[in-house]
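Assess this today:

___
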Amino acid sequence: MTGHTPISEPSNARESMPMSRRSRRAFRRKSLREDVWNLPNILTMARIVVIPVVLWLLDRGSPFDCFLAALVYTGAAITDFLDGYLARKRNLVSVLGKFLDPLADKLIVMATLVWLVTMGRVPAWLVVILIGREITVTGLRGIASSEGIVIAAGQEGKAKTALQMVGVICLILGYPYHIDFFIVDFGMVDLVHVGRALVYLSLVFSVVSAVQYGRLFVDAVEAKERRRSGSVG
């Protein structure tokens, strides 16, 4: 009696078969682990880690401690530009990075501003408005992303970020310093007043950019609805 020769499945067919649920979970865990330990995300997480250091130095409150706090905060601000550059340069843009980067930015800025309120260096109403603006824009971005809408940051938002960064550093320093730019000698300058002025100015750009973002969001949603209605019709 002739036996049947077993038919082996081609290797390329096996490779094309979808991964099992366990394999997919293992792949996702491996991918997430790799994302956590890539250099841009390490820099981003470092910004979160140094927040207690900045607050602890501010709580000590001496001019030297505030100077150290300003150095740490400035280093964290530099990593904000560096991690994005490295992610794009090395093709390391990840979902985790997209989540952590804006989160780290908002945490270090808002935590520092709230602490500065307790030190009397910035008014509470100003920080409340800034936090409200960030929550509103973040919510709109989340809705826009879920709808597949991409809204680029405007120049007002970038100006707000720059003014806020320099203003917060001045507020952290928090003491009078002799400012001499070689050509112009400003004498003793109270950096609290300089920082407040810059943060007040950033507030104007914050509100303008939030209104602009809301308008762009509404326009984008309406344009998408019109396209959808046109395709159905």
